[in-house]
């Protein structure tokens, strides 16, 4: 069972109306995804009736890979050349950078991971309008995960060799969803077929969350100890954020009961035995109205957000070659054999006010058979319609009021960087999520990264990087990144360049960074001040 994946799905009018999806007033034009014609590779000519929530999650996943080639700059994590890009991985890293200053004019990174769908006939170096996507067959737990961040005018300035500051603005967004195991194949055409191929004793669950925010940050880092052979640096980042978009959904205790159709008949029909669900979204979506101008809608949307605080802390321990401390060379002061970094990142949470269509529902009505579920859940195009359909299925329904909170992707990062000789280095990084799990009572978002090993060849001007990662969703990816002057460009999954069915997993990053041509020692010399930051 496949769906066409064509560019006209993402036209400007569609994007505008998708922001208003939760308000309950979605024009027919915005329902394109649910009504796309399906070309069945297996020969089936009908489709399973997919609930609206799954369609929404699928649309979010489909959009994310399209933006991916535009927190995980795996290539430069741990590198002294990272400069202002390294502050989000370890705030202590900015003091051991051999530039008087650097400025990230712009950078963007996106990561996607899923086993829920497969995109066919699409590669980054061979895009085509004939690309298609299909739900993945088999019995397994399904997941969707994506994150996006953008840095704008992030600056790092060395106050001297033992102190540095950084500051800037970021946009960050996270999405994840995970289900309990279930079986699916592309020959299914209704819920009766679906339940037939699954164990009738299955208990179905889904946990999902999405959080996006704008933040301003300031970082201070300094050297705490230095004896010439060993050095300890520490740093802290304080963040002020506006929580611009939040949502979550949970289905728990979903169960069905099988019934024989007639005496002697071997076929079954199914009724809904139990189900409890909670879902909510941030109320600023209720401020988006199709009759208003985009400018006014954005003003209302962003003006009805809540603020929050966050903090990163980190240390780096450098082991040098035992030679005496020297300030004479441009780079000798920053050299090391081993560099060990430990950072605790994204301590904080975002608060959102519930939108008026948020609900807590449960208690199935008597006699809700699979055929009734098909009719109630088919053709849903808005959250308001979804609520109306649930009212015919579940007897308990209550609005969600007040605020809900989503924890930031809190994690412990351990990074070890080793100098191999020449311009070659080997970096290893372990990222451990510390926030709420999918099955917990608390809500939050998480990073996809887990373990990354990156060999690199790197000079001040050039770099070639080969990050190899095993992520938190049990995926193994080999990436590639290149640096030339101020431009860094990388991809998380090399298979995306030419592979025709891998685009749904990977993503990439691009950064434009300008740097002072001299180290902090040279910048204090009158002969080189002409190369430093221009004065106002």
Mean pLDDT: 82
Tell me, briefly, the overall form.
Answer: elongated
Q: Biggest β-sheet: count, sense, barrel?
A: 14 strands, antiparallel, barrel
Query: Unreliable runs, pLDDT <50, ≥5 residues?
Result: 1-70, 325-330, 522-536
Question: Helical region count?
Answer: 9
**Number of β-strand runs:** 25
Strand content: 35-45%
Portion in helices = 10-25%
SS-based class: mainly beta
Radius of gyration: 26 Å
Strand arrangement in the largest pleated sheet: 2-6-7-9-10-12-13-17-18-19-20-23-24-25
Q: Separation of termini?
A: 61 Å
Give an overview of the whole structure:
This protein is mainly β and 536 residues long. The protein is built from nine helices and 25 strands. The chain has helices spanning 12-19, 32-35, 52-68, 191-196, 294-303, 370-377, 383-391, 495-498, 520-523, and strands spanning 2-4, 101-114, 117-120, 132-135, 138-140, 143-160, 163-179, 182-184, 204-226, 230-260, 268-281, 306-319, 338-353, 359-364, 394-399, 403-407, 411-421, 424-433, 451-458, 462-465, 468-470, 476-478, 480-484, 487-491, 506-515. The chain has a 14-stranded antiparallel beta barrel. A three-stranded antiparallel beta sheet has the order 1-4-3, with no helix packed on it. Strands 5-8 form a two-stranded antiparallel ribbon. The longest helix has 17 residues, at 52-68. Mean pLDDT is 82; it is low at 1-70, 325-330 and 522-536.
């Amino acid at each position: 069972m496949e769906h066409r994946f064509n560019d006209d799905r993402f036209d400007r009018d569609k994007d505008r109306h998708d922001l208003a999806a939760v308000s309950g007033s979605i024009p027919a034009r915005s329902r394109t995804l649910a009504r796309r014609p399906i070309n069945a590779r297996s020969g089936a000519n009908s489709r399973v009736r997919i609930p609206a929530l799954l369609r929404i999650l699928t649309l979010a996943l489909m959009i994310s890979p399209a933006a991916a080639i535009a927190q995980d700059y795996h290539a430069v994590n741990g590198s002294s050349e990272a400069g202002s890009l390294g502050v989000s991985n370890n705030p202590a890293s900015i003091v051991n950078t051999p530039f008087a200053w650097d400025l990230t004019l712009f950078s963007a990174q996106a990561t996607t991971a899923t086993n829920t769908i497969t995109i066919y006939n699409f590669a980054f170096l061979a895009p085509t309008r004939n690309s298609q996507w299909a739900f993945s067959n088999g019995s397994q737990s399904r997941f969707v995960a994506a994150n996006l961040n953008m840095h704008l005018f992030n600056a790092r300035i060395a106050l001297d060799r033992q102190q540095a500051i950084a500051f800037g603005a970021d946009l960050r967004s996270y999405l994840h969803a995970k289900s309990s195991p279930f079986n699916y194949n592309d020959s299914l055409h209704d819920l009766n077929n679906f339940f037939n191929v699954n164990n009738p004793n299955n208990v179905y669950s889904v946990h999902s969350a999405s959080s996006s925010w704008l933040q301003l940050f300031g970082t201070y880092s300094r050297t705490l100890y230095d004896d010439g052979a060993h050095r300890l640096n520490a740093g802290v980042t304080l963040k002020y954020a506006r929580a611009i978009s939040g949502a979550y959904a949970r289905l728990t205790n979903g169960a069905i009961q099988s019934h024989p159709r007639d005496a002697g008949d071997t076929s079954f029909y199914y009724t809904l035995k139990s189900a409890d669900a909670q879902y909510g979204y941030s109320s600023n979506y209720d401020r988006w109205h199709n009759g208003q101008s985009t400018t006014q809608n954005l003003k209302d949307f962003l003006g009805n957000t809540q603020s929050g605080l966050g903090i990163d802390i980190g240390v780096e321990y450098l082991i040098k070659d035992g030679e005496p401390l020297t300030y004479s060379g441009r780079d000798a002061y920053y050299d090391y054999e081993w560099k060990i970094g430990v950072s605790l990142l994204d301590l904080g949470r975002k608060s959102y006010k519930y939108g008026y269509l948020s609900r807590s529902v449960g208690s199935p009505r008597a006699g809700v058979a699979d055929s009734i579920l098909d009719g109630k859940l088919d053709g849903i195009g808005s959250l308001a319609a979804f609520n109306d359909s649930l009212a015919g299925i579940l007897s308990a329904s209550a609005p969600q009021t007040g605020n809900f909170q989503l924890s930031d992707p809190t994690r412990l990062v351990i990074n070890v960087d080793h100098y191999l000789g020449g311009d070659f280095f080997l970096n290893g990084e372990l990222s451990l999520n510390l926030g709420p799990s999918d099955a917990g009572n608390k809500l939050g978002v998480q990073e996809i990264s887990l373990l990354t090993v990156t060999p690199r060849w790197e000079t001040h001007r050039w770099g070639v990087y080969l990050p190899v990662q095993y992520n938190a969703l049990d995926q193994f990816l080999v990436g590639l990144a290149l640096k030339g002057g101020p431009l860094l460009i990388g991809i998380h999954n090399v298979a995306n360049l030419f592979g025709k069915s891998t685009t749904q997993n990977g993503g990439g990053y691009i950064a434009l960074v300008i740097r002072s041509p001299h180290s902090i020692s040279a910048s204090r010399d009158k002969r080189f001040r002409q190369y430093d930051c221009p004065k106002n």
